[in-house]
């Protein structure tokens, strides 16, 4: 049961990591996606605004200035207002102020400025490209595409074409229009600076992967590596593809190790390598990767949750519980799955009261947490308090009616209460909803044995041994039943 919960946690980690997978700047540090039309507009504006405004921009000073996000927002807003006041004839100033309005949630003012920018420069592709970016952000897809088409019709230079095709390709990717995205990325390769072509190849690889075209996906990721073998994100992308799509974990490991060699302090790379090691069932190696990821980023909760899961898989429940505790402390909010997993560790350690406390908190946080209800029932079953256990199993089944394990536990609890009819009802259902869950066959075999139906019990244990061939006690039980069935 615990392994399945850990699998849920690991799957969640994979999804969250995919969602925040960074692009990387030349320095190797995490960077934002490549700037689009508005970024170019603002860059050109800085060559026209007054020296006084430049003096207020910390990014243009040699001396570093540390600002809070709110201070930075206020400074940029002031700069935008000043830019419009000093340069009312320049479309870049209105793009600048319009973008600031949009970021502050004043969308009507923002689009009014962006519209005015187009009216000031109706033949400049940057004015349309900038407005398209904000149309896309606002979900106004038709208008965004029209502006990008208009910008391209004005025969912009290569740099602007690069921005438009890349930006529009990302737009199509976000709408799951992968074929359209690939078409744009292919065009972008004609104009993209060679040093950054790897980003286009990675994006194309992602699109091909989503379309199920693994051959072209691998080709694209390999092109990225060929373009920039010195860039860790290229190796990361190829490693993720080998691990997640092709299940070639050894090849993935080699790619992750190359990424880590290029950027050894990346907790993200280390966690990716650790997850791949878990897939290979190399728990000790996964533990090493996750421990290094914690050293690289000691304030990020996910490293502890992953290491805790690895400890739990290795049946080292004390350090696992400690890591789950640390993960929740760093996350600064209770987590139903982490509470359930820590409760399972306490259960294994015989700390039943602590386990019940965690399970109770888990179901309060997530009333639909079937695992926590089932675990609570299991605790009461172990204590012999079967009447308390049954409602929790019933609740778990109501929340997750296709979960064979919960039916098995409920059926076995009824068997322990002496009600073989109820026991068979739930054990039959357990096998119906999950015919590959081995424990249900052993449980039903025990019920049949108690009823003297040794042939049925033996048939169930034959199935159990097939599903769990390494279970020595199961094989011993099966052999005892064979002797009984011969004597009956």
Supply the key terms:
488 residues; mainly alpha; Serine Threonine Protein Phosphatase 5, Tetratricopeptide repeat; two-stranded antiparallel sheet; 1% strand; elongated
Strand content: under 5%
Shape call: elongated
User: Number of helical segments?
Assistant: 27
* Main beta-sheet strand count, sense and barrel state: 2 strands, antiparallel
Structural class: mainly alpha
Give me the CATH fold name of the domain at 29-156. Serine Threonine Protein Phosphatase 5, Tetratricopeptide repeat
Characterize the structure shown:
With 488 residues, the chain is mostly helical. Among the domains are: 128 residues, Serine Threonine Protein Phosphatase 5, Tetratricopeptide repeat (Alpha Horseshoe); 88 residues, Serine Threonine Protein Phosphatase 5, Tetratricopeptide repeat (Alpha Horseshoe), CATH 1.25.40.
Present the secondary structure layout.
Blueprint: H1 2-19, E1 23-24, E2 30-31, H2 37-45, H3 51-55, H4 69-86, H5 91-103, H6 107-120, H7 125-137, H8 141-153, H9 158-174, H10 178-188, H11 197-210, H12 214-227, H13 232-246, H14 249-262, H15 267-279, H16 283-296, H17 301-313, H18 317-331, H19 336-348, H20 352-365, H21 370-382, H22 386-399, H23 404-416, H24 420-433, H25 438-450, H26 454-467, H27 472-487
Antiparallel strand pairs: 1-2
Helix pairs in contact: 1-17, 1-19, 2-5, 2-7, 4-5, 5-6, 5-7, 6-7, 7-8, 7-9, 9-10, 10-11, 11-12, 11-13, 12-13, 13-14, 14-15, 15-16, 16-17, 17-18, 18-19, 19-20, 19-21, 20-21, 21-22, 22-23, 23-24, 23-25, 24-25, 25-26, 26-27
């Amino acid at each position: 049961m615990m392994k399945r919960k850990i699998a849920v946690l690991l799957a969640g980690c994979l999804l969250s990591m995919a969602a925040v997978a960074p692009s990387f700047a030349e320095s190797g540090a995490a960077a934002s996606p490549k700037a689009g039309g508005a970024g170019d507009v603002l860059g050109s504006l800085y060559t026209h605004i007054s020296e006084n405004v430049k003096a207020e921009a910390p990014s243009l000073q040699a001396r570093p200035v540390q600002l809070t996000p709110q201070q930075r927002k206020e400074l940029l807003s002031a700069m935008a207002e000043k830019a419009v006041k000093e340069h009312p004839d320049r479309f870049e100033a209105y793009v600048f102020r319009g973008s600031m309005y949009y970021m502050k949630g004043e969308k009507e003012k923002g689009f009014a400025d962006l519209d005015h920018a187009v009216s000031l420069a109706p033949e400049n592709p940057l004015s349309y490209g900038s407005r398209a970016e904000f149309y896309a952000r606002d979900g106004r897809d038709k208008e965004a595409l029209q502006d990008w088409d208009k910008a391209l019709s004005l025969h912009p230079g290569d740099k602007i074409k690069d921005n438009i095709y890349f930006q529009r390709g990302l737009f199509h990717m976000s709408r799951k229009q992968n074929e359209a995205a690939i078409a744009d990325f292919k065009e972008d390769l004609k104009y993209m600076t060679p040093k950054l072509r790897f980003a286009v190849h990675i994006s194309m690889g992602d699109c091909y992967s989503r379309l199920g075209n693994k051959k072209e996906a691998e080709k694209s990721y390999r092109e990225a590596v060929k373009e920039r073998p010195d860039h860790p994100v290229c190796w990361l992308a190829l490693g993720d593809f080998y691990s997640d799509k092709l299940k070639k974990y050894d090849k993935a490991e080699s790619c992750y190790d190359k990424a880590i060699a290029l950027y050894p302090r990346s907790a993200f790379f280390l966690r990716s390598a650790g997850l791949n090691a878990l897939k290979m069932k190399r728990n000790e190696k996964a533990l090493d990767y996750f421990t290094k990821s914690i050293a690289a980023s000691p304030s990020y909760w996910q490293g502890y949750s992953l290491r805790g899961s690895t400890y739990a898989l290795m049946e080292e429940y004390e350090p696992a519980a400690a890591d789950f505790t640390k993960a929740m402390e760093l996350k600064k909010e209770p987590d139903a799955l982490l509470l359930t997993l820590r409760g399972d560790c306490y259960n294994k350690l015989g700390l039943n009261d602590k386990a019940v406390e965690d399970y109770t908190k888990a179901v309060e946080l997530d009333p639909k947490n079937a695992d926590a209800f089932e675990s609570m029932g299991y605790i009461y079953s172990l204590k012999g308090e079967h009447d308390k256990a049954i409602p929790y199993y019933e609740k778990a089944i109501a929340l997750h009616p296709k979960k064979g394990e919960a039916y098995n536990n409920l059926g076995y609890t009824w068997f322990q209460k002496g009600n073989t009819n109820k026991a068979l009802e739930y054990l039959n259902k357990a096998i119906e909803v999950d015919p590959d869950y081995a424990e249900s066959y052993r449980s039903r075999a025990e019920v049949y044995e108690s009823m003297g139906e040794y042939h049925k019990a033996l048939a169930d244990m034959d199935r159990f041994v097939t599903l769990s061939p390494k279970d020595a006690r199961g094989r011993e039980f099966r052999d005892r039943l064979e002797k009984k069935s011969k004597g009956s």
